[in-house]
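Before surveying the methods themselves, let us examine one representative protein, written as a sequence plus integers encoding its fold.
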Amino acid sequence: MNKPFSQACENNKRPILEILTKEFSTVNHVLEVGSGTGQHAVFFGQHLPHLTWQTSDLLVNHAGINAWLDEAALDNVQKPIVLDLDDSFPQLDKNRPIDALYTANTLHIVSWPLVVNFFKLIEKNLPANAVICIYGPFNYQGNFTSQSNADFDLWLKERNSESGIRDIESILKLATSSNLALVEDYSMPANNRLLTFTKVK
């Protein structure tokens, strides 16, 4: 099949890599929640060879992810597993525990109940000191950070009324309740952010 392609992934992969190179320097096994096209997995897997990168997504996206993975043939990037935030955490190799999580452009796509469940699954399944990196747009003090984000939010809600750019204050409240401590809130290109957390227990 033809590989799916996201221009946004192409645009943001290098700025994100700069952060992940630092934040994931001491971890070994990353679960990517919502691998989408598979572009990020291949790019980060190539540039962070010390990591095992586990892709995941809904089953409907697996063929596209596998098209990217098959072409790249990277030993450290694993075939996608089914991960539905409405369900339980996937069973993974207990001999190689996940000690980091990465997700990009997911929290504004899924419904708010699934955002809540996302943090509950992290709390329940990731070990202490795990590193969590979340990329995407956020509102601050109830305000959009740019007109383009306001327009994007309208577009999201036209597609699905349960989607929308989330308030950073609500995200941080969920994170705190899930035993996550904010390490850094990075400003990224195109009015996006990259939030990094560590699991405190």
